[in-house]
Every structure is written in C-alpha cells, then in structure tokens.
Amino acid sequence: ADWSLVFWTLSSVLLPVLITLWCSFQRSRRQLLIRDIFRKSKHDWHYTDLFGQPSYCCVCAQHILQGAFCTCCGLRVSEGCLKKADQLFLCKEIMMRSDGGAHSAMPHHWIRGNVPLCSCCMICKQQCGTQPKLCDYRCVWCQYTVHDDCMTDCVRTEECTFGEFRDLIIPPYYLSTINQMRKNKRTSYEKVVPYCRKHWIPVIILANTRSGNNMGETLLGEFKTLVFDLSKIVPAKALQLCTLLPCNAVRVLVCGGDGTVGWVLDAIDEMKIKGQERYIPQVAILPLGTGNDLSNTLGWGAGYAGEVPVEQILRNVMEADGIKLDRWKVQVSNKGYYNLRKPKVFTMNNYFSIGPDALMALNFHAHREKTPSLFSSRIINKAAYFFYGTKDCLVQECKDLNKKVELELDGERIELPSLEGIIVLNIGYWGGGCRLWEGMGDEPYPLARHDDGLLEVVGVYGSFHCAQIQVKLANPVRLGQAHTVRLILKSSKMPMQVDGEPWAQGPCTVTITHKTRALMLYHSGEQTDDDASS
C-alpha cells in the first residue's frame, strides 16, 4: 500500500512535468521549422497569434484565427499548411524577365480568398467577400477583385493595368530591362518608360519599423509599390534604385519620425557627392515618430495612427507640391585639450537647443536605452517627457544660462536676459506641435520659414515657461534672426540637442551655418478634406 501511494504520488507530480517538457520541446521544434521556412522562402512571411479580421487558409480553406501571412502578396495560411503554401503559391515579383522589355504586358497575379472588405467585383460590380468561406480573387498588383463565378479564362489571363496607382508603381519588367541594359553598359534609362506613360512618377517607400509606436511593420504590406524596411537595409543602398529611374521624377515616402527623415536626407546628400544630383528624389513624410515637427511643418500631420487609408496617403504623395528645406551644419569645437580633438559635426533640419528641453530629451534617451520595450507608444513617450519636464521645474538644473553662454548672431553679440535655455529654429514647429517663434500670436512677428536661409533664435526661462508657450499662455524671448549663429559655452557641462539627439557638452564653441537645401514635398491638406467631405 505504501509503495502504491508513492508510485501514484510520483506519477501525479512527474506526469504534468513530462507533458509540459514534451509540449515545450514540440513548440521549440515547430518554431525552428517555421523560422527555417521563413528564411528560405521568397514570401515575406510573418506569424500572428490572432488575425485582425475573419481569415481562411489559402490551402485547406478552413477558418483560422492564427497562422502566417505574407505582407507582400497577402497570402494567409494555417501553421500546418505553411510549407505547402510556400511551394504552391508565387509571391509578387519585383523583377520579372520578359521578351518584350519594359513595354511588355503583364497578366494579373490572382490570389484567392481574404479579399478586402467592401471591395467590388470588376466584372459584375457587386460586393466581394460576403460569404463566410474562402472565396473570390484579388490581384496583388492592381487590387481588383473578381467573384468565383465571374472568373473566366479570359479574365485570368487579362493584362494587368496596375489599377489606380499605375503612375507610381515600378513594373517588374522595367527593372529587369534596366538590369539588362546595365550589363550591356547602356545608361539611357530615361528612354525606357513602361507602357509609354507620360506622367509616370515612381514612388519608393522607406519604412522604419522601429519608429514611435511601431506602426511601420503594419504598414509594410499595405502599400502597393516598392517598400524598403530601414531596419534591414540602409537608406543609401535603397536610394540607389533612383539611379535606375527617370531623372527628376522619383518620389520617396519616408515612414518614420524626424530622425528617420534626417537619416534619409543624409543619404541623399551622399548622392550629391557622388555626382548623382539629377537622380535626387523629392521626399514626403508619413509621421510615425513622437515629435514629428518637420512633418507638421510640411503639412503631413503631427502623427499617423491609421486614421487615413493607405490609398489616400498615396494620392496625397502624387498630388503634393515640391518645395525646398534649408539644412544647416552644426559644428561643436571643444575648448582645451590643445585643440587636438576633432570638432563634432551635425546636420540640422529642425532645431538646435541648449537648456531644459535638451535636458528632457537627454533623460528620455538614457531611460529608453535601458528599457526600450517601455517606450514603444507615442502616448507613453510624451508622458515621459512631461514627467522629466515637471522634475526640471523643481530642480532647475539649467539656471543662470546667460552667465555661462555668449551668443552671436551674424557676428553681433547679443545681451542675454536671465534665461535657462536657448533654441535655434529652422522650421515653424517645435516641441511636438508648438509654433514657438509666433508664440501666442498677439504680436506682429513674421512667420518662421524653412526655406529663407534664416534661423530664428529664442530664449526660454525654464521648463514651466516651455509648457506655457506650448498651450499659448506665454511668448518666447525672441532674440533675433540670423544667417549664422555662434554660441560659446564658457564653463560647466550643459545638455544640448540637435533634432532630438541629445548629449552632455562641456566648454565649447557651437557654430551653425547653412549647408544645403533638400527637395521636399508639401501637402496642403485641401484635397484630403474635399475627398472626405464628398
């Protein structure tokens, strides 16, 4: 009886442990197999524990809650059918050979099932995807949908026109033709215009999946044109595609924060150094960061949270107007060390600052580097800035700045009042949507411009003063406008930042001079409003 009790006790304890270990082993093995398929596949597979809408497996046609989906062609499959789907279905091809060259006709690339909601059949004009099963077809290029009953051999082999966005899509036959021309050492790419389009404006998407609230990864599969993930490829390599496209015709949509935009603009400056000026694209912005002041200045909004359909974003890019943006060189020369240290050189698009707002950015970046998972939401990021600003109101770490700093505007020294911070502006917006130079708007000061070759220089009394300016309860201390700004930090370490990138700086001389101009796209917002009202 005692041995029987011991046996059943051990069994009751060990059996759940063994089952758990076996399940864990099987799960790990399954994950390794899935990762191996993902690595070898031409599809851009991603795994999800829960689909956001009713979904059906493209292989077994069963309803699925979790599984894998391809962000490029839209296939959705269960975990068990993943390997079979990878062998059965072709993904959207970026380059495709053809005997007819860039002017070749390309048939539709049909995928069955999981069509977008509220889509209509191109044949009978009735709604598709209404039945609770795997039904109807969708072309991954033109996004046209067709009922199962309307799908005929004629429709299946019909030429694809690339739909509404044919003027911004880069056809796969075009890239294949250009690649062959490069092998033959021919460079007259501008003569190869696909389908004889007169108004072809190819658009390239550069998405930073790590910006702001991590929406970049969600957007990767929704765009119908060529997309590069900046977490996997640097902008300089992605922008080399512009050299294979018609001169002065390419537009680039940067999905990310102001830091990502600056990264892309630096890569464009490298193209100028290489002598590729005629291939330089115009840049539009989809704001996914926290501050997004540059995006706000250029009319693209203070932050994107999925409220505007991707189709409307692409229309806005096509209709946007070209403008220029001043870019500035910020040189920081350290004092002492017998001048053996090389000066730090930054490129400024938005603003430079010394004082409380730089201190908030420095504290924020220090904590985000320690625990990056806590700062994946735009709301949490702004709450963190609010916390550090409130803390500085009590501590006042940057007081008596006017005794530590000398300011020169175009060579003329400026007498400073009792300040805690100085901000040098290139654009109209600052601090996540505040028009700093205009302040409350009750004084007749000219609006700050981003293309006039002038910098606006203002002072703030502290973090509380910054907060008052942001809610239009106070005006900044306007120190003047200048083409060249020189700032001399005489003693002690002070926080500084350029476009949200902060650091602690000892005694130095900061010189800000004009560097170059970038080609940007400005969105007025009128077209979107008209479409929404209609």
Strand content is: 15-25%
The secondary-structure class comes to alpha+beta
Low-pLDDT parts are 527-534
CATH topology of one domain: Tumour Suppressor Smad4
Main sheet characteristics? 6 strands, antiparallel
CATH architectural type of one domain:
Sandwich
Number of helices: 14
Order of the strands making up the biggest sheet: 14-13-26-23-16-17
Q: What's the count of strands?
A: 26
Q: What's the overall average pLDDT, rounded?
A: 83
Family: Belongs to the eukaryotic diacylglycerol kinase family.
EC number: 2.7.1.107
Subcellular location: Cytoplasm; Membrane
InterPro entries: ATP-NAD_kinase_N, C1-like_sf, DGK, Diacylglycerol_kin_accessory, Diacylglycerol_kinase_cat_dom, NAD/diacylglycerol_kinase_sf, PKC_DAG/PE
Give an overview in words:
Pathway: Lipid metabolism; glycerolipid metabolism; Glycerolipid metabolism. This is Diacylglycerol kinase. This protein is of the alpha+beta class and 534 residues long. Among the domains are: 26-92, Wheat Germ Agglutinin (Isolectin 2), domain 1; 328-515, Tumour Suppressor Smad4. 29% of the residues lie in helices and 23% in strands. The strands form seven sheets. The protein has a six-stranded antiparallel sheet. Strands 22-21-18-15-24-25 form a six-stranded antiparallel sheet. The protein has a four-stranded parallel sheet with strand order 10-9-11-12, sandwiched between helices.
